[in-house]
Fold this protein.
Amino acid sequence: MIIGITQGDINGIGYEVILKTLLENHIFEFCIPVIYGSPKVAAYYRKTLNLEQLSLSSITHVNEANGKKGYIINCTSDDIKVDLGKSTEMAGEASFLALEAATLDLAAGKLDAIVTAPINKKNIQSPSFTFPGHTEYLEHIFNTGKQGLMLMVSDVVRIAVVTGHIPVSQVSETLSQSLIENKLRLLNQSLQEDFGIVCPRIAVLGLNPHAGDEGLIGEEEQTIILPAIHKCVDEGIVCAGPFPADGFFGAGTFSSFDAVLAMYHDQGLIPFKTLAMEEGVNFTAGLPVIRTSPGHGTAYELAGQNIASESSFRHALFLAYDIYRNRKTYREIMSNPLKNNHVSRGNAIE
């Protein structure tokens, strides 16, 4: 399995968490990691972080990666410069070039998955990248006629969001019954195909405090969310709610479900990062390709100090492999469904 790794923002902790992860030799037992970035920047971080024992082979094309070791493809100009802990135009351009190159190879079937290091959502903006994040960019590139789904994953909890990177002031007007239904279908399908859960149990959160208190504090629960839940239940999806978000997480009710569908970004990501900051992974569900990412950002304040934890990035790499394996198993099962085979014993048919 070949996994592409995009360098992200070169002034953050991206290279640190990538290189520290690749120091673990057992990584090469299940995948061939190929970094899309800059050999020059990688060498800088190997020296700065005293990680020079890690060897990376420079290649021009991904099809040259054929051994149990790490590779790197240069996607940037020779004058690339690291400014630790700073947001720069050069860093934004470099992060996009790496992402673009990896995405092209992923679309061409040359990669089995990609793991994206954190980007700065502002400095990456350009005429070529006008999206609020990786999720929306990949939805655009792999246009299947439907949106993807931001799904935060850990061993403790899985949380998806109906609305992603939009202002809170736009959440209510963006929500609709059909949107919630579509996200529930995507989540249910992902839990089955990507995580191997035969009959997933999904909790749906309300939008307003106390889930609207039966319309006293807001009507979205009664007019939008509850009808969406009923429609999906009628389709055979096991889902319940809407639950008040505070009590749902405070009482630990989330542990009774395979996944949670939150209405907006912070409603889902605040409890997720509180519960699973170190090992949490961002997975873009609902796409024909596999993309994971660590659950943290560029962390400029930690850059170059050799104190950033690689745990979340490591889990992102593992999850990409697990999803690849689960999807393969699911396809095999669905292409060869069990049939009623009659076994003959003499003249008897059983």
In short: Residues 311-335 form the longest helix (25 residues).
